[in-house]
Amino acid sequence: MSAADTGNEPLPSLEQQRIAQAREGRWRPLPLIRSRHWRWIINLSVLLYVVLAWLSVDVNWSRVAQGMERGQAFVASFLQPDFTSRGGEILTGLWESLTMTFTATVIGVALAIPVGLGAARNIAPLPVYFVCRGIIAVSRTFQEIIIAILFVTMFGFGPLAGVITLAFATIGFMAKLLAEDIEDTQKEPLEAIRATGGGWLQWINYAVQPQVMPRLIGLSLYRLDINFRESAVIGIVGAGGIGATLNTSINRYDYDTSAAILLLIIVIVLMSEYLSGYVRKWTQ
Amino acid sequence: MPVKHVNNVPVWQRREPLKQYAIWAGWMLGGMLFLLCWKVISDNTIWEFMNDAGTQAGSLIGRMIPPDWSITGSLMLPLWDTINIATVGTALGILIAFPLAFLAARNTTPHPALRAVALAIIVSSRSINALIWAMLLVTIVGPGIFAGMLAIALRSIGFVGKLLYEAIEEIHPTPVEALSSTGAARTQVLAYAVWPQIMPAFAGISVYRWDINIREATTLGLVGAGGIGLQMNAAINNLAWAQVATVFVLIFATVIVSEWVSAKVRHAVI
């Protein structure tokens, strides 16, 4: 099969070779990319990138070796998390995180609904559409933590800055997905309500809202979940919540407390996931 | 159809009365919970800071405009680092998430106990933000890009693993049965019956996570894990808001480009 293995012939004969080989019991799956040249170019560029990326990393292996002990201590601390010695701080932090999460989600969703309506091409006029899409782009680009830094500078330390941060991030997330959902709605109910002479609010309330409501509820619950996870982070820059406690415990190498906080976060996220799965089944 | 009689004239109602009351009660409870939560927030807030929030915001924006373009050149290397953190981190995460997803999917798992372990790993990885992983890893492997890559990888495992195992559970069983009936080995069934069905989803999920990771990688420098976040942190600590604005513009541009790439690839494969 020396001629068949060169593979320099044009495509049809390659195809025939494949079939001929398959008849002899040497079947191979079709390659993902047809052209041999492109396969080589892609493989080489991936290799080149890996080399370049590897050059940009300078791993200080002696430092890593030193840290391994701490790594082991951290893993071990998950087996003996310490909930009690910093119990008070953990409890206040968690309570603050949970209240921040809920408040921010409610405010964020309430603000995201008008933005989402404005960002849906099929119901919003073009100028409104561009303004709302702009709001979504800005809100989605920047990570919660960056927004938190700005809001902490403006509003001072404390949970209020955190609530505003999470609400702001919620607007972009919810409005984008809501707008996409509205754009996917069926046209007929929209036209039907229009045809009866319903006003704009009636149009939204009876034609659009019933179609998007299940997804809106599902997304809100999902965002509640995300906001809780984010609330554990924005505390690092002083925006309230459990993050500050977590940050302190990690910086002090008090891994037993860190493990306790992380476990609590995992358990709460798990519970909220089960809950939202249940509610979503119920609304659909 | 629920109908209410007003002066013997039937009036159409959207819902049965009992259901309507239940919905009102739900809204009431939700509103009360919201007010309670708001009270907690309000008690923990120093409202005096709010009085000058307007002027603070004004002066902040005033100092950000115009951005200090002179540092753009020195930001290119950190930006390259950020992209590397996201890309290599995503690749590492996918490498671990891929076998994990097969262990976690109900139809491909070798044993229910292994499935529980895989699910536990996926949930733990998903629940914890990349920034927290980065904080931990900086204390373990030292500050730098390496910690950032590992943090992104650890966070990506859960995300990719979850979406991938859901995709595996949704495959058509017929090709699997067809191959099994020919006497194909387990690995052959996975390679020729399962893999072709999940490949588009896999590519889409990976690119989507890469796009998210670019965003997350821009912030990892705040805790010392390398990338453009280091420069941002330094500028913020120096209160050099004009430089911060430059970093913001660069991040904005990078994210827009990565989102465009990710959208293109996802359209191509799905």
Tell me what the structure shows.
By secondary structure, chain A is mainly α. Chain A folds into two domains: 48 residues, no CATH class; 199 residues, MetI-like (MetI-like fold, Orthogonal Bundle), CATH 1.10.3720. Chain A contains twelve helices and no strands. The N terminus of chain A is likely disordered. Chain B is 76% helix and 3% strand. Chain B has 270 residues and is mainly α. Chain B folds into two domains: 46 residues; 196 residues, MetI-like (MetI-like fold), CATH 1.10.3720. Chain B has a two-stranded antiparallel ribbon with strand order 1-2. The two termini of chain B are 43 Å apart. In chain B, a hairpin with a 2-residue loop joins strand 1 and strand 2. Chain B has eleven helices and two strands, in the order ββααααααααααα. In chain B, helix 4 runs parallel beside helix 7 and helix 5 crosses helix 7. Classes of the chains: A mainly alpha (284), B mainly alpha (270). At the A-B interface, helix 3, helix 4, helix 5, helix 7 and helix 8 of A face helix 1, helix 3, helix 4, helix 5 and helix 6 of B.
